[in-house]
Amino acid sequence: MGDLEPWMDEQYIQQLWYNLQEKVMVKVIRDKVTSASAGYAFVDFGSTASAAAALNAFNGAAIPKTHKTFKLNWASGGGLIDRREDRQPEYSIFAGDLSPDCTEPILLSAFTNRYISCKSAKIMTDPRTGLSRGYGFVRFSDPIEQRRALIEMQGMYICHRPIRVSMATPKHHQQQIQQQQQQQQLPPASPTSNISPQSKSPIMQANDPNNTTVFVGGLSAPIREDELRQYFSPFGEIVYTKIPPGKGCGFVQFISRLSAETAIQQMNGYQIGNSRIRLSWGRSQNDKSAAAAAAAAAAATAANAAAQAQKQQQLQMQELQQLKIKLEEQQEQQQR
User: Fold this and answer.
1) Which of helix, strand or coil describes residue 252?
2) N or C: where does the chain have the smaller number of CB atoms within 10 Å of the terminal CB?
3) % of the chain at pLDDT higher than 70
4) What span, in angstroms and rounded, lies between the C-alpha atoms of 24 and 285?
5) DSSP letters along 189-202, please?
6) What whole-number distance in Å separates Cα of residue 324 and Cα of residue 150?
7) For residue 37, what is the enclosing H or E element?
8) Beta strands in 159-277 (DSSP E)
9) Neighbours of 125 (CB within 10 A)
10) What sign has the CA pseudo-torsion 23, 25, 31, 36?
């Protein structure tokens, strides 16, 4: 339930639905720093049928005794009761270059006004300040609308700034991989061996299909390794992060090559603290026999999932290209 006034708290929303003959549980999402309402809430109706009936009956209708209208859409996990059996397939896109003024309700509204299958929007925030990192993810239940949004929302202005969109990197078997990482911790390579990756040229590093390490330069602000991990975790499962003391740089090693490629594309030039980071390929872990041996078990477990994810993305990109051609043909026919 979105587009809420700041004074609309859990008690008000619960009473509102009670007056409409619905007994619900309510959770208003609040700012982590100020505790002010974020403008939206999760409303649990107890059953999928009741929620669907309320969505069909009240979405867009006037809220009694206010100038607002009901703005309802299906929640995508994270609600009061997360029912796995109720979940539908989800198709996500990455939204970058977001304005600091862009909130999750604003981002969600920009997409739901065009795509009825848009389910949720999530803006990633800085773990220390709670401020927007300038990018987020938008989820759809319809893959056709997801692919349309990749074309139609590219460069769309939100809060006076054009956004950029791309395919989000899917995550597979997250809990299983995290458990294995806890059991088999990869010992980080020595800082000096990582700082100057000169054993291979940059071109060779970029072309090495087994290299999943990203070099992060320009870290002028003090930052911990767990914070660096949080910045890059949306792009895929991470093996380890390393920040050599006093060097102004760091390293992030992903499980899959696709995750590392996406991170370099999306985060290069992103501002952390007072400076913008620069990303490139780090030294391949294959050059370090000890690290390669330690990573072998984790790589073997993730190899199948990573290959399937890469194949799926390739298929999606092909379908996207076909859809783009089809849309261009339809526009030409309309102009004629």
Assistant:
1) strand
2) C
3) 76
4) 52
5) PPHHHHH---SS-H
6) 10
7) strand 37-44
8) 161-162, 164-167, 213-217, 238-242, 249-254, 271-272, 275-276
9) 17
10) positive
Residues 24-40 have a mean pLDDT of 81
Dihedral, 106, 110, 112, 118 alpha carbons, nearest 10: -90
pLDDT score, position 29: 82
Phi-psi group of 296: left, alpha or beta (phi > 0 → left; psi -120 to 50 → alpha; rest → beta): alpha
Q: Which tokens is 267 given?
A: 């985060």
Angle at which helix 289-335 crosses helix 143-152, to 10 degrees, equals 80
pLDDT at 276: 81
Query: What is the three-class DSSP state of 319?
Result: helix
List pLDDT tens digits, range 183-203.
444 444 433 334 333 344 454
pLDDT at 188: 42
Contact between 119 and 139 (Cβ < 8 Å): yes
pLDDT at 107: 92
Report how far Cα 275 is from the mean position of its chain's Cα atoms: 23
As a dihedral over the C-alpha atoms of residue 230, residue 315, residue 255, residue 240, rounded to 10 degrees, the angle is -20
Burial grade of 187 (CB within 10 A; 0-12, 13-18, 19 or more): exposed
Rg (CA), the chain: 22
137 and 121 Cβ atoms separated by less than 8 Å: yes
Residue-wise pLDDT tens digits, 57-100? 898 889 998 888 888 877 654 444 444 444 567 788 999 899 99
Distance CA 313, CA 311 (A): 5
What's the pLDDT score for residue 41? Answer: 85
CA distance 135 to 95: 6
Threshold 0.70, pTM exceeds: no
